[in-house]
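tool=predict chain=A
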Amino acid sequence: MNHDKDYDRDHEEVARDQMNANALTQILESSLEIETELMRTYIITAERIHEDPELRERLQNFAEGNAKRTRQLMDELSNIKG
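tool=predict ok
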């Protein structure tokens, strides 16, 4: 079986090429806002939890995950904008 041609991969590349930088920037900026808001929510909630240290730690871990994605989104936006 020849796997040189992958229908999904080929069409994904076409779709990516067709998306202009402005549309991509809008999507990434919207995602950045969402991730930032989630991070804030997790941090604030974790700070208010005193009776359950395990839940507090999990919420802090969620916030760290959002912080990582936020940095990645900022890097992508920076690459697009040049």
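The two ends are 42 Å apart (CA to CA). The first helix runs from residue 7 to 18.
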